[in-house]
Write a structure and sequence with these properties.
Elements: E1 48-49, E2 55-60, E3 73-82, E4 87-90, H1 91-94, E5 98-101, H2 107-113, E6 121-126, E7 146-156, E8 166-167, E9 173-178, E10 189-199, E11 204-207, E12 216-218, H3 224-231, E13 238-244, E14 252-264, E15 283-284, E16 290-295, E17 308-317, E18 322-325, H4 326-329, E19 333-336, H5 342-348, E20 356-361, E21 381-390
Antiparallel strand pairs: 1-2, 2-6, 3-4, 3-5, 3-7, 6-7, 8-9, 9-13, 10-11, 10-12, 10-14, 13-14, 15-16, 16-20, 17-18, 17-19, 17-21, 20-21
Length: 392
Amino acid sequence: MMAAPTLVRSEETPDAKTPAAAKPAAAQPEKIMPETPADVAAAPADAVKTESGLASKVLKAGTGDKKPSASDTVTVHYSGWTTDGKMFDSSVSRGEPASFPLGGVIKGWTEGLQLMVIGEKRRFWIPEGLAYGPVVAGSGRPGGMLCFDVELLDIKEAPKPPADTEKTKGGVAYKISKEGSGEKPGADQIVTFHFTAKLMDGKVVQDSRKEPKPPSVPLDKLPPELGELLGEMKAGEQRTCWLPDGQSSGGLIVADIELISFKAAPPAPAVPKDVAAAPADALKTESGIAHKVLSAGKGEEKPKAADTVKVHYSGWTTDGKMFDSSVTRGEPAEFPLSGVIKGWTEGVQLMVVGEKRRFWIPEGLAYGPSVPGSGRPGGMLVFDIELLEIVR
């Protein structure tokens, strides 16, 4: 399942590169240890603050008026500290500047570097909501407000879509390569589509046409740009689209999208009455997973951790908010049991085919505590799981 981020934005794309892991630029200045800023604990009175809460102060002026956009790749030198003065990362101390797509890092960096020109050095005080969230013990990432010194060395502009493209209301460029027919899908319907994605250099990074079957997803659960595109299309229609992608060096993904069909979504399962806490008659494993059989299955065979299983499931946070459901997508999910959260790996091994069981999975066996802006559910989670098949 999802891993905790290190030095990148995690909501859309947990695999984005960190500044430290990004490809170094050619320059190799002498390695030095940056001094901890005297104002590391809080932004001074003369710092400028944006509407988002990002505070900054120019340490050294740059030249010209060219500023990067979120889709551009930048080369920088930087150092980062927590507010107690502990330096957690520095390209300066490594003696190697870092290059990375500006849209693929934390929100505070994406916003802040767009204020800068080449040669400029600026200090940022980035609130936790624009960084990595609050301090979480054992997460391996810095938490709370962070202080960064960043020097912008170079800007590499992202390739642009062709000039003759059309654009959605959200600004995504596209060309229609094949006309469709009939109605367009509604916002509450499930769309089935093919999706082939390439980097700007032509390298294929995803191709649903090579999978056993095309994806079927509720339109309102797709990323906004993709959902808007498919919502404008008719069955059979095919488009070439240039989707924003902060993690790619070009800043754009060239996607070939074909809307195959759409249908009404099944009704969402009712929120369990005991979603807030496991009831007294629930059983509990040594690890802390509480569970209760909702309907019996058949036979005695149970899956092992190395098996692949097919299930229907729905998941809620303890306040009753459903964050995922194969039921509302109208299609069961199939996955290796060893490749999911620990609570699933352990819990599903208790079940037989045809059985439906409710699990209360503590945060330590799920995705950890709640982290604002992480894009993942936190705390204890509740799942209803029906084991349909042990695929092996």
